[in-house]
From TrEMBL:
CDD domains associated with the record: HAMP (cd06225), PDC1_HK_sensor (cd18773), PDC2_MCP_like (cd12912)
Name under which the protein is recorded: Chemotaxis protein
Domain HAMP: 309-361
Topological category with respect to the lipid bilayer: Multi-pass membrane protein
GO biological process, one term: signal transduction
GO cellular component: plasma membrane
Superkingdom, natural source: Bacteria
Key word Transmembrane helix present: yes
Keyword GTP-binding belongs to the record: no
SMART domains: HAMP, MA
Domain Methyl-accepting transducer: 380-637
Lineage: Bacteria, Bacillati, Bacillota, Bacilli, Bacillales
Family note: Belongs to the methyl-accepting chemotaxis (MCP) protein family.
Length: 667
């Protein structure tokens, strides 16, 4: 119980408790902020990675789509198809050689084949097909025969190699637009899968790719399986958004998937993270902050213990000295080592003991003098034995009147002194009131000045807000002009795309001589599509900026309205300060008047006390004289005995007082 009541404990416990609460709040808040920042950063980073992977997949497959498109208009292929229909076998070797060159050029292609409308098939590398094999019954043939564009199949597992394979096929027409057959290419997705899998997503995340029906093209554990059994995959396939982020649970773990569709194929590229892995960083930061907080708490507690001990140490010294004084040792001196409040208390304690020593020394000296006087009085009382008692009766009557006059004078002096003390107290209070009124006037003037500065700052802020509102409105107007320009760019991109398509058709008609021009036209069309996409993205950004600027204008209007209300409040406050200033001035003037009157009363009081003191002194002198006469007139023997007894009592009291003084140690 003694420890709990000590000053050191009372100082340290609240400070340490406050530090613990502050560190706990800081650690929790920073951990929460870190968790949210990491999650947002990972999602933003993953969106970029997934978009890049989507572009990689698109570029990888586009090369085969473009190449099969060129093969479908190749004269050798068309000649082979026509020869088969017409029963001519001359073009077979040339087509096989062309297929061989194609296989050498594209290493990921496992097979290239051409199914002719009459049911024959040319395939490279050459393999023996079943006798009843009819390409016209195959999906790659039926899906492409009525279309003039490349058709992609669902990914499937190659029975020979076990690799994931996808087939792209395209119908072949001759120069007269006669259907000749379907050209097909089997592409091994192993290289693409390895390229995607090697992408470092960070935080132990992994990439996945699945087809429109949910077949896993790239997956660390479910390669080739259907993923629609996972609810989030089904949601992505059934959803209308081509990209986004979804949260789900799998195998009892919280997970995040960031996805994006591959344009033209409807394949979905995704990045999957275990949410627990994202929290590792925030947990690490939290542990670091916890250990840092503990170390800082220990260091601060040690520093506070040192500081508090340095404060409490002189107080303990003062406590020990006070106990010594209580036991009678007035020679104690407390060392004054500081100039703060503790040092001032120690100095006051030393001054108190010094004053007590001085008083007791004077008392000791007075005791000696009283003893001598008592002995002298005893001798005098013996000498007065010869006094006469004839004057007793007359002098007693005079003595009675003088004594009453002296008592009345003493009472008047006492009352005058009491009145004087009260007037002194009133004078001091009046001076304090005058100083307080002066300080109130100064504080009021300072508050008035600060109100004026606040009003000026409020007016400047209002001007800045009006200017900012005008700038935002001008920005919104300029964004509208930019949107018109973007629309023009979009129109130009569409026209360029149309021209590139027409150029590709003309190049196809030109045959072998137009092959180079067809490639150029295709690249122009691709650039036109990219320009259109970029223009749409810019238009979307401008729309977001316009929406933001409108919101900012509304906020500016609300802020301006708030500042108008604030300005009115400042004006009202300014009026109140001016009224308060007038009241304080009136009060200060009244206090000065009261103070002046009190000073005049004080002067009159001093004169009254001086006069009453003179009267009391005269009465006391008369009383003393009467007592002396009365004493002389009293019965000599009785007076002598009374004085003798009083002298003996006085000597006894002086002896007792001497013993009391001797109990104190003065040096």
């Amino acid at each position: 119980m003694k420890v709990i009541k000590s000053i050191k404990t009372k100082l340290l416990l609240p400070i340490i408790a406050a530090l613990i609460l502050a560190f706990a709040f800081i650690i929790g808040f920073i951990s929460w902020q870190t968790e949210n920042s990491v999650e947002k950063s990972v999602i933003a980073q993953s969106e970029g990675i997934v978009e890049s992977l989507s572009g990689t997949v698109k570029s990888f497959l586009d090369q085969y789509e473009k190449s099969i498109g060129l093969l479908s208009v190749n004269e050798t292929i068309q000649a082979y198809g026509s020869a088969e229909l017409d029963g001519d076998e001359a073009a077979s070797q040339q087509t096989a050689a062309l297929f061989g060159d194609y296989l050498e050029t594209y290493g990921e292609v496992t097979n290239i084949y051409f199914g002719v409308e009459d049911g024959t098939t040319l395939i490279m590398p050459e393999i023996e097909l079943p006798a009843d094999f009819d390409p016209r019954e195959r999906d790659w043939y039926t899906q492409a025969e009525n279309k003039k564009a490349a058709v992609w199949s669902e990914p499937y597992e190659d029975t020979a190699t076990g690799a994931s394979v996808v087939t792209v096929s395209r119908a072949v027409y001759d120069a007269n637009d006669r259907f000749l057959g379907v050209l097909g290419v089997d592409i091994d997705l192993t290289v693409l899968a390895e390229r995607v899998t090697q992408t470092d997503l960070g935080y132990k995340g992994y990439p996945i790719i699945f087809s429109p029906v949910g077949t896993a093209i790239v997956h660390p554990t479910l390669q080739g399986e259907n993923l629609t059994k996972v609810d989030v995959v089904k949601e992505i396939i059934d959803g209308s958004s081509p990209s986004g982020t979804k949260y789900y649970q799998m195998d009892g773990e919280d997970r995040i998937i960031v996805f994006n569709n591959v344009p033209g194929l409807n394949w979905t590229v995704g990045a999957v993270y275990n949410k627990a892995n994202l929290l590792d960083l925030s947990e690490s930061v939290g542990q670091s902050l916890l250990w840092t907080g503990i170390i800082l708490l220990i260091l601060i507690s040690a520093a506070m213990l040192f500081v508090v001990s340095s404060i409490v140490k002189p107080l303990r010294q003062l406590e020990r000295s006070a106990f010594q004084v209580a036991e009678g040792d007035l020679s104690v001196q407390v060392p004054v080592t500081t100039k703060d409040e503790v040092g001032q208390v120690a100095a006051a304690f030393n001054k108190m003991t010094e004053n007590m020593r001085t008083i007791l020394q004077k008392v000791n000296h007075s005791v000696q003098e009283v003893k001598v006087s008592a002995e002298s009085l005893s001798a005098v009382s013996e000498e007065t034995n010869a006094s006469s008692e004839q004057m007793t009766h007359a002098i007693n009557e005079i003595t009675l009147g003088v004594s009453r006059s002296a008592e009345d004078s003493a009472e008047a002096v006492e009352r005058s002194n009491s009145l004087g003390n009260q007037i002194d107290v009133i004078t001091r209070q009046a001076n304090e009131m005058a100083r307080a009124a002066s300080q109130a006037e100064q504080a009021n003037q300072k508050g008035t000045g600060q109100i004026e500065e606040l009003r000026t700052a409020s007016d400047e802020t209002k001007t800045y807000i009006s200017g900012m509102q005008t700038v935002i409105e001008e920005l919104e107007s300029k964004m509208t002009s930019v949107e018109v320009v973007i629309q023009a760019i979009t129109d130009i991109s569409a026209q360029t795309n149309l021209l590139a398509l027409n150029a590709s058709i003309e190049a196809a008609r030109a045959g072998e001589h137009g092959k180079g021009f067809a490639v150029v036209a295709e690249e122009v069309r691709k650039l036109a599509e990219q320009s259109g996409q970029a223009a749409n993205q810019v238009r979307k950004t401008i729309t977001d900026i316009q929406a933001g600027s409108k919101t900012a204008v509304e906020h500016m209007k609300k802020t301006r309205s708030n500042f108008d209300e604030q300005t009115m409040a400042v004006e009202e406050t300014s009026k109140i300060f001016h009224q308060l200033s007038a009241l304080v001035g009136t009060m200060e003037s009244s206090i000065i008047t009261i103070n002046r009157e009190i000073k005049e009363v004080g002067l009159t009081k001093d004169e009254v006390i001086y006069t009453m003191t003179g009267i009391a002194a005269s009465s006391q002198q008369s009383a003393a004289a009467s007592e002396e006469v009365s004493a002389s007139a009293e019965e000599q023997l009785k007076a002598v005995r009374t004085v003798t007894e009083s002298s003996e009592q006085l000597m006894g009291l002086s002896a007792e007082l001497k013993e009391v003084v001797n109990q104190f140690k003065l040096a």
